[in-house]
Amino acid sequence: NAQFAVRRAKKSGRTEIYHTRALDLAREQFAIETELRRAIENGCMTLNFQPICDLASGRITSFEALARWTTEEGVAISPNAFIPVAEESGLIVPLGRWAIDEAARTLAEWDARAGGDCGVKIAVNLSAIQLQRDHIGTLVKAAIDRYGVAGSRFTLELTESAIVTDPDRIARTMTALKDLGTTLAMDDFGTGYSNLAYLQKLPIDVLKIDRSFVTGMLADRDKIAIIRAILSLASALGMQTTAEGIETVELAQTLAALGCTYGQGYYYARPLVGEDAFALIGTRNA
Ligand code: C2E
Ligand code: MG
Ligand code: MG
Ligand code: MG
Questions:
Q1: How far is CA 178 from CA 151, 156, 184, in A?
Q2: Does ipTM top 0.95?
Q3: What pTM was computed for the model?
Q4: Does ligand 1 lie within 6 Å of residue 83's CB atom?
Q5: Average pLDDT score over residue span 135-163
Q6: How many C-beta neighbours within 10 Å does residue 270 have?
Q7: Ligand 1: does its nearest atom lie under 6 Å from the Cβ of 102?
Q8: How do beta strands 121-125 and 183-189 pair?
Q9: CA distance 145 to 134
Q10: Distance CA 283, CA 286 (A)
């Protein structure tokens, strides 16, 4: 096992016990980490924005901010590759701070161009490690003050893993975020392995139904059954729902008929650069 070898080598301080694959892995990890640090410092990270739409009307209610890293060679690296590196190296703290600030800056810019509230919220992803290591409530408050955008214009997306790691700390953070007027969404709902009791204790507003249940649901009664159960759970608890991964009009219609509130996916739009996202508000919400 490559990772085990890395750890053993670090402890003993002896390089000779490095397995070749482990050494390659460690080198690669370090190279990515160094470049990622530089990218964050040099402003090479950007946010893309994917609309979240009201399923009934198709209107855009918010945009999810998705981090993008384009290297100096012009290669676009997926967050699925660099977020884990950022978490392991601690770079998730500066990266996460940047994402919150950049999301707020973007909202202020869109509002200025719209000559008032541009009518959408922005949703920012928070990783479990970031929630453990940083004071998210303080950061969001600072961004609100810095750009003069109301707290109600932000959604924060958390995952179940954040709740499992430190339930008391997460409860305090979520309360602080609610006090700022933000919306809290549980991302990738249904894929975590946590005890559902947290749903009645924490101030969650939205359940985001994971894409894995949506993809292929039209031909899979089990997936439909799970989605129905999540919708009924959300409704009983007074929460709203967003379905991820909507790629076709049939999925949008079926989820709307089942009573899901919002939808997100390639059918509506792929993640867009800020300029295109702003333009889309004008065309879709006219
Ligand atoms: P997520 O929060 O669940 O974001 C949704 C992901 O699904 C995005 O991938 C989006 O591009 C993709 N997606 C949206 N609609 C469709 C669709 O119809 N079909 C398919 N196949 N995919 C769709 P992306 O941008 O690669 O981001 C991956 C993950 O990286 C995100 O999953 C999120 O967990 C994480 N991430 C992205 N940006 C940030 C960030 O700024 N901070 C943190 N902590 N995590 C981030
Ligand atoms: Mg998300
Ligand atoms: Mg998600
Ligand atoms: Mg997902």
A1: 9, 10, 8
A2: yes
A3: 0.92
A4: yes
A5: 97
A6: 11
A7: no
A8: unpaired
A9: 18
A10: 6
